[in-house]
Amino acid sequence: MYYAEKEAKKFLEKNNFEIFPSLYAKNENQLKQSVQKLNFPIVLKISGKNIVHKKAIGGVKLNIKNYEQAKEHFEKMKAIKGFQEAIIQEQASGKEILLGIKKTPEFNHVIVFGRGGSDVEKLKDVSFRIAPINKKDAVKMLAETKIHSSLNKNNIKMIIKNIMKLNSLIRKFPEISELDINPLMLHDGKAEIIDARILFEK
Q: 95-200 has which CATH code?
């Protein structure tokens, strides 16, 4: 079973993770109503049950400055195969963190932490631990990455809190095969999930 962004964030919210606010639009009328509630610039993302890599198919548009631009990109997204609705968010800025869970044949569940954002594959600034872990393990995970040096005390505290939430999630839902949170955005003293996806074992 696969949870794309909308379902994944609902699931994570139920399990005490903080979620960055999102609105949804299936048609132009809903788009207009949503955009009126937000401050520009905004972000538009494609949503669909079978869509995995939104960016690769042109399903993510950043820095939209007015409704006309939003409408234009919305029309283009509607033409992409698998489109069900658009996700609309205010454009957040802050530190982008990658968090995740991966079930492996050798070690069972592994927790992942690293630098998030669109350059994850290129930068490969990540560390791993076999679950279950404790807070000391989480601190060591952070120390193994380059991004660690740019984090303040509050950032570190919030990241560790979220890593420990992942640790609890594995205990509660051992059927999670893969979970990607990218990014967890650190901004304004908060740590909120902007995007996520989850794969469960059948």
A: 3.30.470.20
